[in-house]
Every structure is written in structure tokens, then in C-alpha cells.
């Protein structure tokens, strides 16, 4: 029997209970009923329990998910764009920066190459916890991390304890890298590029949904994106002013709505708006609201603003400030990013910075937005524009390694330009993808097409 992950009602209740604890909802009585009936807590790393439950438990799960959706959060974390802007006293003015020429191309190519390199670095150790990443790196003479992961010279007992987890991970090992292997962290960037090329700057959330249905098989998206896909096929509408909050693609039985999925989709919205973090954040909001709410949306907006700023800025601190300016300062995400930045400024040993991040956010799922955004912030501030130190820090942190590595890589790559990325992180100019029209495309062609979008606006 197929146990499809991330959509079974009985597997969602535990995740929704954990989400309720995070956003301040009182659901003790609902949790007690669930546990008394034999329901389980959220799996710490997986998406589904191994066996199908009794029919009665599935029916109870459906009822409890609806009850949980009706319990409001007391936190001041809006999802509507006008309310988000109103909550941001430092919301930036809309002002693009004219970009063209060799330097602009170098920085855009640096952004694409940086995203690819950070993703490839983090892919082999995705789902491996922090202690396993260090054990692998130390055993192969790569600690502190300064190059691609490798299986060559890895003791058998270490490999058994912390196995690479899928074929694409093996394709990201130093001895096997042959171009950029396919990954969802890169496919979503390609989708955003296709969206802007096909629909233009006035694209809507409905356009994002249609592109997903056209280009993304449901089995190749996960967590919030898979729940959203299910909701689209069930006939639910993307969020809009006419929709009750519990009946949108983002909120209906989607306990992953504050996880990292929207954040990894944001970079191109920033690259298309160099020097204009406000517009970049708005573009990201239109995309993110399809599948996410509150901090899930803020993560996407923040990264888009940082990517827009990185193309014209001179420091990682300037970039982080831009990311914080477009999210509500009283939100959990803003607090986590501010504290991460402060730790990174004060503590010279990045491992101690990560110790503090895990102490504060270790109870969150490894693909949640808040912990990963805090790690991204810390890696940027501590790395101070050093490409290797920045992506290595993001990956060594041990949460969503390929996603955090990709985002940090794209930002520092844009700051430094492709010419400023050390040669050891070079990749063959070929990217694999199942997105129509992109398989085998060169990073230079992606940079050229993205720069064309940015140049059109400026």
C-alpha cells in the first residue's frame, strides 16, 4: 500500500499541533483527544507513518484538523501584503538601480553560480544532522569545510552511520560532479524565471498555481507545496479577498505553511529587481501566498529583498538589513534573524554561533523557515563576503543543508560576482532539470535571461 507523505490526515495532526505550539494557539484539549485515540506526534524527520491507521483514526484526524484550523493565533503576524507593509516601519521606497554591462553580468552570473554551488555542496548531507556532517567532513580531511564532499577515503563505519540518501546526492560528490544535477532548489528558480518571462511583472498568484500544474509533477514537491498541490486538484482557490482563511490552498490542512518551501522560490524575484527590495518582496509575496502564511511568507520576502540588494550592495550587513526591512519586526522570524546576526557579529567561532542557533531553534523541524533563515543570516554576517566560509557555514549548520547553502551562495555570489568566486567552486556550465526548456541550459544563459528582465525594468 502506498503511504504518500505529507498529505495523509493522520500524519498532519501531529505537525499541526506542533505548529499551534509555535504560533501561540491553545489546543491542549484537542491534543489530548488525539493522543487518547492512539494518534501519534509529528515524525521528527519523515513525512508519513509507515502503516495505514484504522479508518476511525483517519476520520478523527480530518475532524481535528478542521477544529485546529478554527483556533486563531494571537500573534501579530499578518499574511496580507498591506498589513505586512503597515507593520514594517522601515519598508523601503521603490527605487531600482540601472544595471548593465560586464559588471552587472558578472554579478548576475555570480548569483546563479553561487546558488548552484551552495546547493551542490549541501546536497550530499541533506537530512544528515549536524554531528554527522562534521564526522563525514573530518573523516575525509574536509573540516572546516573547504571543498565538495567526497566518499573517497571515507571509513566504512562512518558511511554506514551517515549514508548519502539518494542518487542526486551521490551526483553531488566531488568524484561524480558533472555539471549541476537537478534539484528542487534550482527548479523553483527556473520556474520563477519562466513565470516572469511568460507572464511579465504583473503575474498573479493564480499564474504561479497554473505554472505548477503545468510543470511540476505532484510527486516531486514536498511539505507545503504537496499540500497545496493536493488542494489545487481538489478545487480550492489560491488566497484572495473572497476566500475564508481556512479554505485556501495555503491554509487548508497544510501544517507546513511556515516551512522553508516559499523561501527557496524567491531568489529570481530579487534578481529581477536589482536595488529594489520592496518590489522584490512584493513579487515573492505573490508567489509565497499560494502555499504559505505568516513567517513562511516573510522568509520568501526577506530572501527576495536580500537578493535584490546583493546585486548592488558592497557588504553582507547591507544585504541582511534589507531582508529585515521587509518583514514585521515583531514577528518570530525577524527576532530570530536579529539575534542570529548579533551572535555572528560577536562570536568569532562560527561553531559556537550554530550552538546558540540550535539551542534556540532546535525544536523546529529541520525544514522550517525560522531556524533556516536564522542560519542563513548568521552565515552571511559571519562570512563577511567570503564565499567559501559563507556557504560552508550554512551547510555545516545541519538543517536544510542544500537550501540554506543555495540561498547563501546566491547572495554572496551576487556580492562578489562570478569572477570573485574561488575556482574550487566552479561547475561545468550545464544544469539538469525536468522543467520544460531548461534541461542542459548553461548558467551563463540563465544569467543573461535574468539580466534581461532586470534591464527591462531599470
TrEMBL record:
Keywords: Hydrolase, Magnesium, Metal-binding. It comes from the Bacteria. Its cofactor is Mg(2+). GO terms for molecular function: hydrolase activity; metal ion binding. Pfam families: ADP_ribosyl_GH. Mg(2+) binds at residues 400, 402-403. The keyword Chloroplast does not apply. InterPro entries: ADP-ribosylglycohydrolase (IPR050792), Ribosyl_crysJ1 (IPR005502), Ribosyl_crysJ1_sf (IPR036705). Binds 2 magnesium ions per subunit. PANTHER family: ADP-RIBOSYLGLYCOHYDROLASE, ADP-RIBOSYLGLYCOHYDROLASE-RELATED. This is ADP-ribosylglycohydrolase. The lineage of its organism: Bacteria, Bacillati, Actinomycetota, Actinomycetes, Streptosporangiales.
Amino acid at each position: 500500500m502506498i503511504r504518500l507523505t505529507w498529505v495523509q490526515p493522520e500524519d498532519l495532526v501531529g505537525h499541526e499541533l506542533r505548529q499551534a505550539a509555535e504560533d501561540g494557539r491553545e489546543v491542549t484539549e484537542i491534543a489530548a483527544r488525539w493522543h487518547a485515540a492512539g494518534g501519534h506526534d509529528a515524525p521528527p524527520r519523515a513525512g508519513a507513518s509507515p502503516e495505514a491507521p484504522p479508518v476511525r483514526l483517519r476520520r478523527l484526524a480530518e475532524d481535528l484538523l478542521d477544529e485546529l484550523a478554527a483556533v486563531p493565533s494571537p500573534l501579530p503576524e499578518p499574511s496580507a501584503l498591506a498589513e505586512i507593509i503597515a507593520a514594517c516601519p522601515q519598508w523601503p521606497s521603490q527605487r531600482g538601480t540601472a544595471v548593465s554591462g560586464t559588471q552587472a553580468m558578472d554579478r548576475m552570473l555570480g548569483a546563479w553560480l553561487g546558488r548552484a554551488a551552495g546547493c551542490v555542496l549541501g546536497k550530499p548531507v541533506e537530512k544528515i544532522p549536524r554531528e554527522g556532517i562534521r564526522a563525514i567532513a573530518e573523516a575525509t580531511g574536509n573540516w572546516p569545510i573547504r571543498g565538495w564532499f567526497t566518499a573517497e577515503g571515507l571509513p566504512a563505519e562512518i558511511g554506514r552511520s551517515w549514508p548519502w540518501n539518494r542518487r542526486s546526492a551521490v551526483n553531488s560528490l566531488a568524484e561524480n560532479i558533472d555539471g549541476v544535477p537537478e534539484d528542487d532548489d534550482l527548479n523553483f528558480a527556473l520556474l520563477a524565471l519562466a513565470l516572469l518571462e511568460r507572464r511579465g511583472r504583473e503575474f498573479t498568484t493564480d499564474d504561479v498555481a497554473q505554472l505548477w500544474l503545468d510543470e511540476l509533477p505532484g510527486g516531486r514537491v514536498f511539505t507545503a507545496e504537496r499540500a497545496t498541490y493536493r488542494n489545487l486538484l481538489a478545487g480550492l482557490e489560491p488566497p484572495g479577498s473572497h476566500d475564508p482563511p481556512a479554505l485556501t490552498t495555503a491554509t487548508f490542512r497544510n501544517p507546513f505553511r511556515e516551512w522553508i518551501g516559499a523561501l527557496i522560490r524567491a531568489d529570481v524575484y530579487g534578481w529581477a529587481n536589482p536595488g529594489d527590495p520592496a518590489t522584490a518582496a512584493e513579487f515573492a509575496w505573490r508567489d509565497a501566498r499560494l502555499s504559505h502564511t505568516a513567517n513562511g511568507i516573510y522568509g520568501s520576502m526577506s530572501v527576495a529583498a536580500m537578493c535584490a540588494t546583493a546585486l548592488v550592495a558592497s557588504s553582507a550587513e547591507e544585504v541582511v538589513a534589507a531582508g529585515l526591512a521587509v518583514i514585521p519586526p515583531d514577528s518570530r522570524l525577524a527576532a530570530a534573524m536579529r539575534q542570529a546576526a548579533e551572535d555572528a557579529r560577536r562570536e568569532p567561532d562560527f561553531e559556537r554561533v550554530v550552538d546558540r542557533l540550535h539551542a534556540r531553534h532546535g525544536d523546529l523541524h529541520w525544514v522550517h523557515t525560522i531556524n533556516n533563515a536564522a542560519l542563513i543570516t548568521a552565515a552571511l554576517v559571519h562570512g563577511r563576503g567570503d564565499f567559501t566560509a559563507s556557504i560552508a557555514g550554512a551547510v555545516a549548520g545541519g538543517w536544510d543543508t542544500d537550501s540554506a547553502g543555495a540561498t547563501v551562495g546566491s547572495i554572496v555570489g551576487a556580492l562578489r560576482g562570478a569572477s570573485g568566486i574561488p575556482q574550487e567552486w566552479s561547475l561545468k556550465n550545464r544544469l539538469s532539470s525536468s522543467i520544460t526548456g531548461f534541461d542542459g541550459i548553461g548558467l551563463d544563459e540563465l544569467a543573461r535571461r535574468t539580466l534581461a528582465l532586470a534591464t527591462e525594468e531599470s
